[in-house]
Each structure stands twice: as structure tokens, then as C-alpha cells.
What does this fold into?
Amino acid sequence: MSGGDVPTKRKVLSHVEYQRICLFISRYRGLAIDCEYELRNRIFQDVDPMALTCILQSEVFNRSRGHHSKNDQRAKKLLKAYESQKDLYDDALLIQMSCVECINPVALCRMLLQEKYKSRHRSQVSRLLKNPHLIDEPHLAACVQQCVISDNQEGPITDLRRRLIGEEYEMKLKTMATEAGIHFYDERDLRRMGFDKTPDIKMILPFLYKGQVINWIESKANFGDTKGHKFNIQQQLQSYCNRFGPGIIIYWFGYHEDTPQLPENNIGITVLADFPAKEDLVFMQLSSEEALPLKSNPSTEDSPNTSKSPS
It folds into this structure.
């Protein structure tokens, strides 16, 4: 590495490294946003920051899902605790409660609002989270606003950020494919042709990647742990392979070292952490005849009216 070069952050993690990260997250006491700062800036500085963010997201989601039923039972008790202490503390009361109770701030707010406004539909509670100024109690409104800003796992700000990152990397995929000389259909093209479950890009003509025929590429602005990858195969990738043949999934923020070796990939799935290098691509040489248009009849192997999960 030359003097002015920035060291490359690692995106492919060994089993031991991955377990160390998950163990740190499970033992951390405090807000997830603070845990993310510790992961990225103090403990695992040689690992890609977005890989750490995605692992944290997955671990927190799995933990909160396991406690969901218990949290519902605690709602009445927590609302009573808030009501009894709201005059004693400033606007950080719910933040303090979320740390003590090990609940994401926005999840805590949702529990309290649903308990407080039992007559309101869940969609109305979601509206209050998006617009805390509509809450009729100023102190509670201020606490909810602070929780929304302080939560990097749930809430309207986090949802928007994740959606924009997903769209950014889908656009990056299309740009890099075009620059590599690949001709493709995107999701919008495929849906116009009648396909309901579609990869991000489908090659008009297949190419070879290290000797493997590639018909499609799927973009995931995420970290590819083994559990999440198996879920993606079940929900999306198996359908793509059945319908279009072998393809590539790109986990832009890296993956667990075992993910590319899973036997479930043997249906024709190649796992990468970046767009394939140009020197590894071999394209079909066309004659004067143009490529035939993609057929618009979905395969009978796929179930009808299925939708694609977000990237």
C-alpha cells in the first residue's frame, strides 16, 4: 500500500469474525445507534462500515421479533411508568426508558401510542410516528420526535434511508452493466412483458462469468449472512433460476464466507460482493441478426401473482 492510499475495508467475513461482531451486539446495552458507532469507529475499524450496519440491523430485528409478544404485554406497565415520570424528566424520558427496557425507541413509542389510543387503528398510530406534532400532548410529542431521530433501526427516517440506499445501488448496478457493454431488461421492462417476479436486470443475451452462464443479476444493498441468503433463495432467487436460468446476486456490503458455498446455490446462483470484473466476462459475438425479444410467458414453475421483496 502506498503512502497516500486508504486501506480497503474487508467485506467478506470469516465465521469467527462474524460471531465476534454478533456477540458484541448481543452484549451491548444502550441505543442501537450508539452500538453502531462503537462497531464502526472503535471495535471493528478494518471491516466495511456498511457491513457492520447491516449485521446490526439483522441482529436487532431478530431480537425484537423474539420479544414482540412480551413487549405487547408490557405496554400497559410502560405507559403507566411514563405517565408517572413525565413531570420529573425532560424530553429524553422515552430515550432513557428504551435503554433500560432494551427496546428500540420507535418500537417503544409505538407500544405506548397503541396503548394510549386504543380506539385508533394501527395506521393512525403510524401516522403519529411520522408526524409527532399531531400528538395532542406536547411532552409526549417531543419525546416521540426525539425517539424518531435517535432510532437507526425503525421509523420513517430509517425506512426512507434504506429505500434510498437500495435504489442507489440498483442504479449503480445498471450503470456498471451498461459500462461493461451488457444489454439488459430492467424490472420495468419485464413487468411490461407480463412477468410478476423479476430480478433487477435480465440479460437480453447471456454472458459467461468465469465459465458460468449468467442470465440475470440481483442487487442487494445488504450483507449476505447465511440465514438471510437462504431466505432470499426461497423468496426470490429460486424463482429466477427456474424461469431464467443461472444468475448472480451481489451483496454490495459483503457476505459471510460460508454464503457462496451453501449447497442451496447449486441451482445456479453465484454470490459476489461487487460487480464482476470485466476480464472475467465473456460475451456472445452477434452476427448481423439482432437478438430476439424476451418471451413474455411466465414459467409455470412459479406461483402466480407473487411479488418481489425489497432490496
